[in-house]
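Researcher: Let's try something more involved. This one mixes different molecule types, so please make sure each is placed in the same coordinate frame as the others.
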Amino acid sequence: MPDKNFKDILRKINQFGITKNTDIVELINSLKDTGFNAKRLAIACEIYKEMVNAKNCVKFFGLAGALVPAGLQKVIFDFLNEEFIDILVTTGANLTHDLAEALGYQHLQGTLENAEFDDKILHREEMNRIYDVYMPNKVYEGIEDFVAKIEIPDNDMSVSSFLKFLGKQLPENSNSILRVCYDKDIPIFCPAFTDSGLAMQLGFHNQNLNLNHFKDMLDMVNLAWDAQVAGMCIVGGGVPKNFIMQSLQFCPNSATFAIQITMDRPEPGGLSGASLREAISWGKINEKAKYSTVISDATIALPIILWYLKKSFK
Amino acid sequence: MPDKNFKDILRKINQFGITKNTDIVELINSLKDTGFNAKRLAIACEIYKEMVNAKNCVKFFGLAGALVPAGLQKVIFDFLNEEFIDILVTTGANLTHDLAEALGYQHLQGTLENAEFDDKILHREEMNRIYDVYMPNKVYEGIEDFVAKIEIPDNDMSVSSFLKFLGKQLPENSNSILRVCYDKDIPIFCPAFTDSGLAMQLGFHNQNLNLNHFKDMLDMVNLAWDAQVAGMCIVGGGVPKNFIMQSLQFCPNSATFAIQITMDRPEPGGLSGASLREAISWGKINEKAKYSTVISDATIALPIILWYLKKSFK
Amino acid sequence: MPDKNFKDILRKINQFGITKNTDIVELINSLKDTGFNAKRLAIACEIYKEMVNAKNCVKFFGLAGALVPAGLQKVIFDFLNEEFIDILVTTGANLTHDLAEALGYQHLQGTLENAEFDDKILHREEMNRIYDVYMPNKVYEGIEDFVAKIEIPDNDMSVSSFLKFLGKQLPENSNSILRVCYDKDIPIFCPAFTDSGLAMQLGFHNQNLNLNHFKDMLDMVNLAWDAQVAGMCIVGGGVPKNFIMQSLQFCPNSATFAIQITMDRPEPGGLSGASLREAISWGKINEKAKYSTVISDATIALPIILWYLKKSFK
Amino acid sequence: MPDKNFKDILRKINQFGITKNTDIVELINSLKDTGFNAKRLAIACEIYKEMVNAKNCVKFFGLAGALVPAGLQKVIFDFLNEEFIDILVTTGANLTHDLAEALGYQHLQGTLENAEFDDKILHREEMNRIYDVYMPNKVYEGIEDFVAKIEIPDNDMSVSSFLKFLGKQLPENSNSILRVCYDKDIPIFCPAFTDSGLAMQLGFHNQNLNLNHFKDMLDMVNLAWDAQVAGMCIVGGGVPKNFIMQSLQFCPNSATFAIQITMDRPEPGGLSGASLREAISWGKINEKAKYSTVISDATIALPIILWYLKKSFK
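Model: All components are placed in one shared frame. Result:
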């Protein structure tokens, strides 16, 4: 840390203005020279743009949290469809909810003034709650009907191969993450797949199923190994964050770009909230990397980043 | 809580899209029907617009946190200049930093990759740190020179009267909060004024100064009492939040609109993170109020709200 | 929610005292009648004691976070050794670090005043950082040597069967979680096992390994199904929390006791911070359950709970 | 930062055990050599003990948050009564609630399973909520009756002089913070006094009251100036934290010991969550200080620290 020359580094904070004609690129450019999380969000946008522009950069995207229920399915779809993501690592929950929407089911919302329904009554009425989003139990029945008809080509295929196969079964022209990854040939990894409603249905209907999680692990390491330049965008921590990180740890080229959007913090010591700088000690992010952690709800930060990228690459 | 009829209330989550031509009003309208904090931010925007439109609504604005150092002086200036705020309650720190910028001093920023200067070296070099913002000690000297020349008209005047007097001394056409409040005749309350660098300088130079804090308290209660409709926007909690809340508690009309932007949470039990719903039990917010708490860094949420308001009232 | 009769429920807050002769059971009893997280911690202790006392109660324990590196290996060992846990669900990271300690390696700590080492230098010196804990890279080499010699009995065995086999290889009389689970015949589930350093070493050395994660999933559902009474203690959220929850969702008896210790919060919408009350809507926790979420660093709360239990059952 | 010699600093993490005979001093000694917040809490205990032992050390204690309603009045009383505090800086809210308890009123609690009363009904029944603590409106009436009878000796006295006078009016042998500070001649500062229910009642009944807040500010600076050794324990941030910090900023001896217990974090940039290290850059804490920030609910950490101190100084 160049302690002695901080005077060479420090620059004026920008007391920026906003007009009704401000556009998103201009706003982000203004925020870049401020402080706190506005600055970090702006720099995250800038790093992401640079990742997209960088020749041969493999863009890893780690997605935890219940973003599909919260209404961000199309936003994530667009990240994939615009090729802002090369490799997706996510949770079984996100895929379960993506499948539900792809099959025509919907998630529901309340109002802020009536935010506190009695969970006992919700239970009796078979309405599952995810903070302020609701999913009727009957969605599970729809998923079960769908799963029951699937003929899995190989009980020992990797999870990512299975997810590609699954995406192919889904309607074209939907906003499905699974479908667009199939269409665009973008690998989806889901290391904790059996920790999901979708996997439970699959397991109940296919007692011999043994999707090969170790093959996924090795495939992921190979993809990381082959990346001449690696970048990562981590949303919400969890298993997706670590799975991307561990794959890059022993590679010739660790990550050169890193973005993290999370509400978790370093002090409790868990990986979800760990700083990106910490990952340098492990060799997961390289010493010369550009990185930015944005402490923000992803439902606010992700749409802004997408908007900035779409406008930048119009 | 209308537990039995939740089915009448629940509506579809909006899986919204973004294009390069999206504008801020359209984005907020999309987010309104999602979940988590994106929804809450969108509803906060909508409530703020409604406050501005509401006839006779007195808009209280509580501002804690170091937003001027972080580059939001002009954003707050615009909230005042556009008359989105009728009564400002803030901290001595924000006023101290506002004065510094008004006098031509600047706050400084580092880079994310060099974010961790040694505070011991910063101290030796007389550079004060506010997370990732920096303020040279010499700014204090500039404030002292300014304060030493002020002739306070009345040692027993209220803090808000003094702050109005102070605003008048500052350059026209600056982005100063103090100056625009003078120009627009917007009262500024600062209940913990003596908890600030500005007040320390004033006290050192005026040993007989006894600004009347109780007069402020009573003036504020009278303003709250006279409000036919009251609305509040609380940024960051702290004393400004409680001071607005306590003033409305015993009034004929408690708040009808309430917005809160904070990173604090209810569980530790402090007022800063308390839910707005809790304020209903105290009679500070009324039973039919519209309200929204956004868990977000204010440096991200406030510019978005301002942008939305400017575009909505173009 | 029995809104009308809150007056029947409310009791006096206990303004409790502490003496040098206070003991842990007395302290917890005092805190039970206070507010905020002290109360919640006290009630968590009480619920855990009740779980241990309850006849036929199956105690599920979800363990995320880096607690072994932080020095809590022996605390978790004791929870297992005292039979306060019947089924453990954890992360691959915790098992990797447990194995390291069992093989004689150590985790390291700095001092608070020298808490900010340069991660670039740590990297060059092959010292991996976990917030304020450090692990030399050579530990991985030791794990690799161990793993290279293991002869896995069946490439298609479940992860939990493998972990039992692994525990058997470890030194008796160590404080190892893996070993005590073998000794006590306590099943360990690790749904995201391939998301760990241990699994990577296993995969590199055994290209045909395909531990059957679906078998684990079904075994876990069967254990949950058979539980006449179910209780859960969730530390830190993540995959272990959801894996326990999903297993109980469709069972005849969902959880009757539930404790959660976490720094995560509900507002970002992820499962880690979700309230226990929310799980009632899903049928994972039953309507008459006793539950308590403690917002606390687990390194503080877990030793207190263990201490309370040991003293209560002396 | 001594980056090069981290190897000289790093020591083994202690995988500590707990028995039913463990006592609090032994537990804290064990936690000292762990990681995360357990370590920080243990070091906070140790620093506090050292502050008490240090000859001529003036112990400043900043108390924000609603700890009296939560049941910690007697804990804070004991910190004062045992002379673990030399100067108390607190909020008007804590003093209002302390007065209420001293006058014989009580705060109330619910149960965790019935934690979500309807605030509208609470309002109609005149029951004010503070997270999970409740205070009937009639307490305000009792405070008003008390306040109406007080004959304030001097309208222009400082707030701290008034609080001393107030303490004298309260029953001996109560657990009142105000009373024990009078008995022990411990100054109480309350920079935002007019931001409280107590001050509102005083103001309503004494229209000429103008307690001299600037005198408090100067008195506090003088006390800080005279401290040969200064230590601070900051609970919860807010105005009390800054008021102590600003008083020490320009003194010959800034703080040599510093403890902070808070759930706030640095990233949003506010002072409440600012690291203690940051205060070194300002000269509020000195370069050689021992310091520890504990991210913990104060209702858990404060009783533990008191218990440790009582046992250590038995």
